[in-house]
Amino acid sequence: MKNNKIVYLAVATALGSLSTTAHSAGFQLAETSATGLGRAFAGEAAMADNASAQFRNPALLSYLADTQVSAGGIYVNPNVDIDGENSQHGQTSTNDVAHDAVIPNFYFSHQIDDRFTAGLALATNFGMETDLGDDFTGTQFGNEAAVTTFEINPNIAWKATEQLRLGAGIRYVLGEGSIGAKSSKGAQLPKNAGPLAGSPVPEHSTLKYMEGDDRAWGWQLGAVYDINDKHRVGVNYRSEVDLTLEGHAEGLTYNLAAIQKGQLAGADYLSSNHYSGSMDLTLPATAEFSSLHQLTEQWAVHTSINWTEWSSFDKLEADIPSLSSDPKMVKVENWEDNYRFAIGTTYQWDQKLTLRSGVAYDTSAVSDKNRTLTIPETDRTWLSVGAGYDVTPKLTLDAAFTYVFAKDAPVKEPRDGIESDQSGSAFGGNFEGETTGNVWLVGVQASYRF
Questions:
Q1: CA-CA-CA-CA torsion for 410, 414, 419, 420, nearest 10 degrees?
Q2: Which helix (H) or strand (E) holds 255?
Q3: What residue stretch is flagged as signal peptide (predicted)?
Q4: 61 in helix, strand or coil?
Q5: pLDDT tens readout for residues 390-442
Q6: Is the pTM value of this prediction over 0.85?
């Protein structure tokens, strides 16, 4: 990977490690603003609190007057553990596979005239990073996985009528990714290694590792409709983004392929050779339908239903021209489309203080059968509270707190019926166990109206 990472990209890498419990399903990030965090991101496609609204629906820009800037960050503290049994070595566990992190965001909006408003969002919508550690005897199926993205998102909104607002945006996504696996205790080369079969493989040897980066384009469309002055609905669609992560592969698996082609001596099966290659990764399409209902002058209720096309994340394959004309299987994923349901409330305490709360439920993007150690994806329940305070007529400060319960879920590798998983057993046995986790988040944000 490139070493000259943008600051936002580096922070997003750290945050990505929390995707197994803290975010929307898979490696989708929900933490786009402290304002939204306080209501568990309920009603995001229908509520225009500040310039951050454009990232979830560009049409909301048309509700923002003059010029506005919003910036903030969310601190995430996760606890993700995996416990189980290795068929050769007995009980094994790994704790805190994710680390504390802060993710920043920045948004800008400018009202061009009575009909048009433009905006710019700098944030991230996808990211993950897991590290199972060397002491865990399940790393032969995967010891690490990471996806890092940063998005530059210019948007435009049009007030078509007094009731209908439309918006669109361009997404320029900078992405990086990696995945790896290491041997556990007592590993030996399998029978298909030919004359090398039975040769010892030292513990923690890299079996496979690949990393790469790419830049790609996407788009988003949104609409908001005011049913009347108390009820509003909004919808947003974000396109999928296809990345081809160009980089290199290394590890015993690729060395054996090089030996078979006569490119490497048999005695060098544990060498640290690098092979140029690439890996395709699709960031899935998403859609959100939201509503806002002003029940009284003080109370409002808002809801969201989110859909993510995770079925596009079915497998990871490495294209390494020097070793084969056919792609090499890295990991079968078999993910499924998922849904997120959220409901929140807003209470206007007085002219300066706004109180928020919300609850949300994320469904898992994988079945129990297809859950893996490197992405132990599971259902999550969010409980959120937050507040906004108008320090001056132009400056508003927001703060929020969220606690996320992750459902305990089984994980087993090799998975039944997936042939490519079977090779991992030779390098340290089988694993069967459970993943558990929870996380708390704290967000702060400042918004200024010029």
A1: 110
A2: helix 252-260
A3: 1-24
A4: helix
A5: 999 999 999 999 999 988 999 998 888 888 888 788 888 889 999 988 888 99
A6: yes
